[in-house]
Amino acid sequence: MKRSALLAWLLMLAGALIYLIGLWQACPSLSSKGYFLGVLITSMFVVYVYLREVKRGSIDHHFASVCQMVALMTSGLLLVGLWNAPLSLVERGAYLAALCLCISGQYRLMRVVELTDQPTGIDTL
């Protein structure tokens, strides 16, 4: 379990560092940097909240719909921002891949935490 947790943390941190350091160098204005930082934070927050509620078992249809809507809006904002940013095609793909890497690392981390929180047969005796 320690190895998979370390892998999840490395995925998430590597994706965030590639995303933030790369865009800090590529985007000329401070407002663009803030825009992309907001997209990263919003997407990470939506994934975290959704997975936490799934883990608790207290998710309902309306909450899932809101999370899906916010995730789609955040994805749309990222695509519009990358379309209008003065970046090359390779940089645009790299930042999109870095965001996906960051989100997949967070998903793996939540799964590892969920698996370690489950009681084993010895604990229930």
How do you describe this structure in short?
This protein has 125 residues and is mainly α. 84% of the residues lie in helices and 0% in strands.
Please give a handful of descriptors for the protein shown.
125 residues, 4 helices, mainly alpha
Specify the helix fraction band. Answer: over 70%
Helix-strand category: mainly alpha
- Cα Rg: 17 Å
Low-pLDDT sequence parts? none
How would you characterize this protein structure?
The chain has helices at residues 2-26, 30-56, 61-84, 89-117. 84% of the residues lie in helices and 0% in strands. The mean pLDDT is 81. It is flat, with a radius of gyration of 17 Å. The protein has 125 residues and is mostly helical. The chain is built from four helices and no strands. α1 runs antiparallel to α2 (30-56), α2 (30-56) packs antiparallel against α3 (61-84) and α2 (30-56) packs parallel to α4 (89-117).
What topology emerges from the helices and strands here?
Elements: H1 2-26, H2 30-56, H3 61-84, H4 89-117
